[in-house]
Specification:
Elements: H1 3-19, H2 21-42, H3 55-85, H4 89-94, H5 99-127, H6 136-160, H7 169-180, H8 193-200, H9 203-216, H10 223-247
């Protein structure tokens, strides 16, 4: 394992994040604060406690997940695409990295940014009185897993994209709709039976439910199914991205 090389990639992403701190850290924190104010403070005061917790605490895990998804996807996709655009990817290809280490480096860099964002949003949630952690270990694992999944999706999009505008295609037409339809602002008990079953077929529902269960101890999904979905996506995407790196798709002339 090229520990020095991996640490250098992680440090590089951390510095890149801090160089544009308004875009990478402050903007998602402000967005999360607005979500909490509108859905938690304004609307939440009109809704009775749900599952034994205030509505703002029920909503907060979904708001956090939304920010983690956006941060990890944007970090991985922009990082790799700019390296392709400037031919900086050639430095990675000639470095003593295995393809698995390349994957770990790019994904780990995106997870670092997502964790930085999540810490700021947790602090924001504390200010609103929305944060509780019944299982901190599970919370960290769920956050890291969700960030890694969307980092790998970001890598795939960065390899496929031929222009800057294409970097947002998956996020705009797939990720954002599935996120909002995954129960981040509502319980599936509020839905008609058919809509609830459709929601259970949405993998984003299991992402939000896992983070929510680790924070407030309330779960609406089958935990075993959720773990199968998350681990399956992690393994499947890791194999796919590693294979694309090995084949040199879009990264070798």
């Amino acid at each position: 394992m090229n520990a020095i090389g991996l640490f250098t990639m992680l440090r590089r992403e951390a510095k890149r994040t801090l160089r544009v701190v308004v875009q990478t850290l402050i903007a998602p924190t402000v967005s999360a604060a607005l979500y909490l104010f509108i859905f938690g403070t304004v609307i939440g005061t009109k809704i009775e406690d749900f599952a034994g917790v205030p509505y703002i605490s029920f909503v907060f895990p979904g708001v956090l997940m939304l920010s983690i998804i956006n941060a990890s996807f944007a970090s991985a996709s922009s990082n790799l695409y700019f390296m392709r655009f400037t031919r900086g990817i050639e430095e990675i290809l000639i470095a003593p990295f295995s393809y698995l280490e390349m994957l770990v480096g790019f994904v780990g860099s995106a997870v670092v940014r997502a964790l930085m964002v999540s810490v700021l949003i947790l602090l924001t949630g504390l200010a609103f009185g929305a944060v509780s952690l019944v299982n901190p270990v599970a919370f960290f694992l769920y956050v890291a897993a969700v960030a890694a999944i969307f980092a790998m999706l970001g890598i795939i999009v960065a390899l496929w994209a031929e222009g800057f505008e294409q970097l947002q295609v998956l996020n705009t037409f797939v990720i954002t709709p599935l996120t909002y339809l995954g129960g981040i602002f509502y319980s599936i008990t509020f839905l008609p039976p058919l809509a609830a079953e459709i929601t259970r077929a949405n993998p984003f529902f299991y992402f939000a439910d896992g983070i929510r269960s680790s924070m407030i101890g309330y779960s609406e999904a089958n935990t075993a199914i959720g773990l199968i979905v998350i681990v399956g996506l992690l393994v499947g995407l890791a194999i796919l991205v590693t294979t694309l790196f090995r084949k040199g798709w879009k990264i070798r002339a």
